[in-house]
Design a protein that fits this description.
The chain has 632 residues and is of the alpha+beta class. The protein has 15 helices and 19 strands. Helix 2 packs parallel to helix 10, helix 3 runs antiparallel to helix 5 and helix 7 packs antiparallel against helix 8. The chain has a seven-stranded antiparallel sheet, with no helix packed on it. A five-stranded mixed sheet has the order 14-15-13-18-19, with helices on both faces. A three-stranded antiparallel sheet has the order 9-5-12. It is elongated, with a radius of gyration of 48 Å. Helix content is 58%, strand content 17%.
Length: 632
């Protein structure tokens, strides 16, 4: 029985064969159009002169030596800044004939039809007189063209005795001017075939773009939206090359027409780079290529934006340089995955080989590296059509693989769920038995746990008290003070009652340590704290060791006057205190900074502490053994 993978591969190859058949059909149409165009190439000799200095005018062109004019066959001059002059002599001309310049991307065309000057005329130069003059090109608005058409069409004058054509061409991009001579009725027949081919191409591109856009809306798969963006931007690129964009979309903007080809070319490559990365799954399958593609994407996006400001001639050369690097990298990435057995990569590689061949051939023709018997843009359209079909096949294959993987995952999930349900039934039966056994054990263990929890709670309370108590003096420590003052500050703000903060510091305590030793200093700190406990003894008052020989007293509902009386009693008690330790009798004094207020904003208590510290510093400067009061 054929597996799903083999069936998918078999169907994909059949579709690829249909794509190849469709490509052959389009090539046949292109060759037919090419023959029709070639049959109407000028039979007259075309002579060419390159005005490198761009200094020649219709008044001076006849002064050139005859040797300066060179016979030219294909009117393709590549990328050049020089003005190109063409000269053609018609033995006779009819106004039922039109001259076609079969290239839509020329900035400036000036055409003069002249005859031998046989009388004195104000509109004459030397031996010739001008019969008709036309000024065309993309630098003018589309409506200013003599004949409203996407190509440059010029009616011939009625001149049975012959007429000379002088044509001056200048453009920022590749310069070519294939000249075709048509009778009007023949051109109408050709235009119908041409329109049919262009309609098929743009209709196909529009359909592919919209289908993938709708698929994105329904599936939210980003691959569809990037593919759709690539198709639309490529269609706009072809439309700008053939002059259709200028005719139907932006006819009033010569500025955009000059830059459209570069903008849409860079935009097309931006979408194809990101699409390639997505469809080939480079992020997971080839991280190194993924980073390279990401770099190319950034460069092409930058190129798209730069094309709005930088001249077309520079951007088109930059584009060709980037294509020389990026297209081989894209091919290498897809081929490396194709050799590993990826069907998606195989179709992708085939698509890029087709587009690479047609794109490079068209570029070589535009830059006059080769000469083709047909319009190279038609070949590019055939390549693009085949490529988009193959890429669509790759997208469809990718989506089919994802659906197959999703079904497989769903089937495995269902099997796993069934196994899980069976295992759950077994577990439930075991749980019932275990529950009976556990209930007895839980009752016994619960009592043990409650006893242990009570013990832990007691230990935790002890540890909490130890962490917030100064082990030397028995007072609370700075950590406890910083927590407690938040509570008292909130109460002061809520009850609109004053809160007093006093910072105390033992005078010259360093000299006590230096003279008697740290053990004696510790005994002095203990005596200092014991005296403070005896003097400040309201239940709501807080005594804390702030650090070293510095202490802080927090007195709720107390004004500066009330605090001064309490702290003055304490100062006197310290002044009269004699600490006897290790055979020494030690006396010392204390300085204090005191401030009081009703707390306002949340952080005002911090400013009070800083102000009390400032008052303490003033007490030290005032000779120590004193109390400084202040209103904050």
């Amino acid at each position: 029985m054929m597996t799903a993978e083999r069936k998918l591969s078999y169907n994909s190859y059949w579709l690829a064969a249909l794509v190849a058949g469709f490509t052959v059909l389009m090539l046949y149409m292109v060759i037919s159009l090419g023959r029709d165009i070639e049959n109407h190439s000028l039979q007259q000799s075309v002579y060419h002169f390159a005005d490198v200095l761009n200094e020649q005018t219709i008044e001076t062109i006849d002064q050139l030596d005859s040797d300066a004019w060179v016979k030219n066959k294909n009117q393709n001059f590549g990328l050049t800044k020089a003005s190109q002059w063409l000269s053609v002599n018609f033995a006779s001309a009819q106004n039922s004939q039109v001259l076609e310049v079969d290239y839509a991307m020329l900035d400036s065309l000036q055409l003069w039809f002249r005859q031998v000057n046989d009388d004195s005329n104000s509109n004459s130069y030397g031996a010739y007189r001008i019969v008709q003059y036309y000024s065309l090109g993309d630098s003018l608005k589309f409506a200013e063209r003599t004949i409203i058409h996407d190509k440059f069409l010029i009616p011939l004058p009625n001149a049975p005795n012959g007429v000379q054509l002088l044509l001056r061409i200048q453009s920022n991009g590749p310069v070519k001017a294939p000249l075709k001579l048509w009778f009007k009725q023949d051109y109408i027949v050709y235009a119908a075939s041409h329109r049919l081919f262009m309609g098929l191409f743009f209709g196909y591109m529009l359909a592919m773009g919209l289908i993938n856009l709708f698929l994105y809306v329904t599936t939210r798969n980003l691959t569809f939206i990037t593919y759709s963006g690539y198709v639309f931007s490529f269609a706009l690129l072809i439309g700008s090359i053939h002059g259709l964009g200028y005719r139907f979309i932006w006819p009033e903007s010569p500025w955009l027409e000059e830059r459209a080809a570069a903008i849409f070319a860079f935009m097309t490559m931006s979408f194809i780079i990101i699409f390639s990365s997505q469809i080939l799954e480079l992020k997971t399958k080839s991280p190194r290529y993924y980073l390279v593609f990401k770099g190319f994407f950034i460069v092409y996006v930058f190129g798209t934006i730069s094309s709005l400001f930088i001249p077309y001639s520079i951007m088109i050369q930059l584009l060709l340089l980037l294509l020389l690097f990026s297209i081989p990298v894209i091919l290498l990435a897809s081929l490396s995955l194709a050799f590993k057995g990826s069907d998606i990569a195989k179709f992708f590689s085939a698509a890029w080989v087709v587009l690479l061949f047609s794109g490079l051939t068209a570029s070589a023709d535009n830059f006059h590296w080769i000469s083709l018997p047909i319009d190279s843009s038609y070949l590019l359209m055939v390549g693009a059509t085949s490529e988009t079909l193959l890429l669509a096949l790759a997208v469809a294959t990718s989506y089919s693989i994802q659906r197959r993987e999703a079904r497989k995952t769903h089937r495995e999930a269902a099997e796993n769920e069934l196994q899980a349900m069976q295992a759950q039934d077994e577990v439930l039966s075991l749980q019932k038995q275990a529950q009976i056994d556990l209930e007895g054990q839980v009752t016994a263990r619960t009592q043990e746990f409650e006893d242990a929890l009570a013990g832990l709670s007691k230990v935790n309370n002890q540890l909490q008290g130890m962490s917030e108590t100064d082990t030397l003096t028995g007072l609370t420590n700075r950590r406890f003070f910083e927590k407690h003052i938040l509570v008292e500050a909130a109460r002061s703000r809520r009850e609109r009652q004053p809160l007093t903060i006093a910072l105390l510091d033992i005078d010259h305590f360093k000299s006590v340590n230096d003279k008697y030793g740290h053990q004696c200093g510790d005994d002095c700190l203990i005596a200092f704290a014991d005296t403070l406990k005896k003097v400040v003894k309201r239940p709501g008052d807080l005594l804390s060791r702030y650090g070293g020989e510095e202490f802080v007293v927090l007195l709720p509902n107390t004004t500066n006057d009330g605090a001064h009386r309490v702290l003055e009693n304490f100062r006197l008690a310290i002044e009269n205190l004699i600490v006897k330790t290790h055979g020494n009798s030690i006396k010392f004094t204390v300085s204090a900074g005191v401030t009081s207020r009703v707390i306002g904003p949340d952080n005002e208590y911090e400013k009070m502490i800083a102000f009390a510290d400032k008052l303490l510093y003033q007490a030290k400067e005032a000779g120590r053994n004193c109390i400084k009061l202040g209103n904050f």
